[in-house]
Write a structure and sequence with these properties.
CATH architecture of the largest domain: Alpha-Beta Complex
Radius of gyration: 21 Å
Strand content: 25-35%
Largest sheet: 7 strands, mixed
Order of helices and strands: EEEEEHEEEEHHEHEHEEHEHEHEHE
CATH class of the largest domain: Alpha Beta
Distance between the termini: 15 Å
Mean pLDDT: 92
Bound molecules: NADP nicotinamide-adenine-dinucleotide phosphate
Length: 333
């Protein structure tokens, strides 16, 4: 049965596009609860979304989890509602008339509240999906995909240029390798162990390394680094004069840099403290670029784990234990 023909529940009202009526204005979704495993509880009494004029309501079919969300779950007050990477079906169009229509399949990059049966989404944070893109593949795109896409832009044109991607088989890294290779870069992938080499090669990396010790590496026009720790200073020693390092994460700990690291060869090189949700107003446009690449078979989200949403805590445990390849995706059933 196509998704658009399935029953949806909507705010205790008639759902015009299907003529369905649903009950009592409540729905299921995750909230923070320190007493629950992973600090998350699936509540069944959340209020239905109350969309603003420029927001659509999306029935969520799949979502992905990210490291920073684990941090947010630990930091936010009880009852806070997480969830940023979402894919689903529009069940109410925006009152302003902008954005996707009822029945459209969409991918969304939210600030929160996405791990629920339905969520209100600003139209500029959505992109319509081609039928060739599954909800699971789409849900794996937003934060990691936009980070890779936008961080690659830091280096401008990369055709024929040397690009280094650290954490190359991770959530962001797998997209960065694929997108850089698709843009014509000569990609060097830094992986954590030789077992990851085949994966990195399959993603499109030309050269795969497990350390940056070799002084013959590079010089790199662009480096994408999500690891930090000692890796960042080592990477700077391999950067080209005037090159750029987009520094988007420090999952490996705080980095210590010395000016001398630039003097190895990277004179006047730049470090960009990178953050993926900026600019906010073109999130949907960039999601559309990624989703179209997936539809055309030019980008394949690496999904290491697909679970029912009741198992969201398991997904976070796999992420923390580094047993995951690529993304963990949850299906909303
Ligand atoms: N600035 C932003 O907007 C933004 C956006 C997205 C993510 N981030 C941050 O970027 C970081 C990476 O995110 P992600 O989603 O790609 O994470 P991920 O899916 O866990 O991938 C991390 C990658 O780094 C490798 N790795 C982890 N710890 C390492 C270490 N100590 N030394 C060497 N390699 C290590 C992992 O290798 P193995 O798989 O072999 O362990 C994996 O390939 C996180 O800190 C995240 O919070 C920031």
């Amino acid at each position: 049965m196509p998704d658009s023909a399935r029953t949806v529940r909507l705010s205790g009202r008639t759902c015009g596009w299907l003529g369905l009526v649903e009950k009592d204005g409540v729905m299921r979704g995750f909230i923070t609860d320190p007493a629950a495993r992973g600090g998350l509880r699936l509540a069944d009494d959340l209020p239905e979304p109350d969309p603003a004029a420029d927001e659509v309501v999306v029935a969520v079919r799949a979502y992905a989890v990210n490291h920073d969300e684990a941090n947010l779950i630990a930091r936010r007050p009880d009852g806070w509602r997480p969830g940023q990477d979402v894919a689903g079906v529009v069940v109410r169009a925006a009152a302003s008339g902008k954005g996707p229509a009822v029945g459209d399949r969409v991918v969304c990059y939210l600030d929160w509240e996405g791990w629920a049966e339905r969520v209100a989404v600003p139209v500029h944070c959505t992109a319509v999906l081609d039928d060739r893109v599954s909800f699971e593949a789409a849900a794996a795109l937003p934060i990691a995909g936009l980070t890779a896409l936008r961080a690659l832009r830091v280096g401008g044109a990369v055709l024929g240029r040397q690009v280094l991607i650290t954490g190359a088989t991770g959530g962001v890294g797998q997209y960065a390798v694929q997108l850089a290779a698709a843009a014509g870069a000569r990609v060097t992938a830094l992986v954590s162990s030789p077992e990851r080499e085949a994966e990195a090669r399959a993603l499109g990396a030309r050269h795969i390394v497990t350390s940056l010790d070799d002084a013959g590496l590079g010089p790199f026009h662009l480096i994408l680094d999500g690891i930090g720790g000692p890796i960042t200073a080592q990477a700077i020693r391999r950067i080209a004069p005037g090159g750029h390092l987009a520094w988007y994460g420090n999952i490996g700990g705080a980095a210590e840099l010395n000016l001398a690291d630039f003097y190895a060869q990277g004179w006047n090189a730049h470090i960009v403290g990178f953050i993926s949700p900026v600019p906010e107003e073109t999130k949907g446009e960039d999601l559309g670029i990624l989703a179209d690449l997936v539809a055309d078979g030019r980008l394949t989200p690496l999904i290491g784990l697909t679970l029912d949403w009741a198992q969201t805590a398991d997904a976070f445990e796999a992420l923390a234990a580094r047993t995951l390849r690529g993304k963990a995706v949850l299906r909303v059933t």
